[in-house]
Amino acid sequence: MKKHFVVIGLGRFGGSICRELHSLGHQVLAIDIIPEKVNTMTDYSTSSTVTDATDKEALLALGIKNFDVAIVAIGENEHASIQSTLVLKEIGIKVWVKAQNTNHQKILEKIGADRVIHPELDMGIRIAHQLDSDNIIDF
Ligand code: ATP
């Protein structure tokens, strides 16, 4: 079933999620505070906008309330990531967030993030399991 996603923060991580969800046929709204980042996603999203994702009124005006899941892919600016997550939870939608470190992760969990992603740690675990798999016979 096709869903409505909003991807916030269009760096390598957010950009890759945005492109993949769009290619899978989902409705994807791409958001970044930097116009150049938004421009890179116009062909790989249903719609895209330059918006500060910590601004509750701006997110409400975009109709964010009606989306299934928001993916917060703001990494380096932890304050913006936390603020955006808080606002999205207040609006009342599911939020998956990228964490920069364990402290950031703990704060995100406390404020109600539905899933916290640690790309490097999560990928390290996946790769270790692939290496452990009996299916690998040729290195
Ligand atoms: P990656 O490691 O995924 O490549 P990055 O290093 O490009 O990430 P980050 O600092 O992690 O960039 O932030 C990802 C994106 O989030 C950037 O494109 C940045 O402009 C955007 N961003 C930062 N603050 C906000 C905000 N308040 N609202 C919307 N987008 C924001």
What can you tell me about this protein's structure?
- The protein has 139 residues and is of the alpha/beta class.
- It is built from six helices and six strands.
- Strands 3-2-1-4-5-6 form a six-stranded parallel beta sheet, with helices on both faces.
- Helix 1 links the parallel strand 1 and strand 2.
- The radius of gyration is 16 Å and the shape is globular.
- The termini are far apart.
- The model has no long low-confidence stretch (mean pLDDT 95).
- Bound molecules: adenosine-5'-triphosphate.
- Adenosine-5'-triphosphate is lined by residues 8-14, 31-34, 37, 52-54, 73-77, 80.
Low-confidence stretches: none
**Bound molecule kinds, no repeats:** adenosine-5'-triphosphate
Beta-strand residue percentage = 15-25%
- End-to-end CA span: 38 Å
Written as H for each helix and E for each strand, in order along the chain, the element string is EHEHEHEHEHEH
Strand arrangement within the widest β-sheet reads: 3-2-1-4-5-6
Domain RCK N-terminal: 2-117
GO molecular function, one term: monoatomic cation transmembrane transporter activity
Protein name: TrkA family potassium uptake protein
Outline the secondary-structure elements.
Elements: E1 4-8, H1 12-23, E2 27-32, H2 35-39, E3 47-50, H3 56-61, E4 69-72, H4 78-91, E5 94-98, H5 102-110, E6 115-117, H6 119-132
Parallel strand pairs: 1-2, 1-4, 2-3, 4-5, 5-6
Bound molecules: adenosine-5'-triphosphate.
Adenosine-5'-triphosphate binds at residues 8-14, 31-34, 37, 52-54, 73-77, 80.
GO molecular function: monoatomic cation transmembrane transporter activity
Domain RCK N-terminal: 2-117
Protein name: TrkA family potassium uptake protein
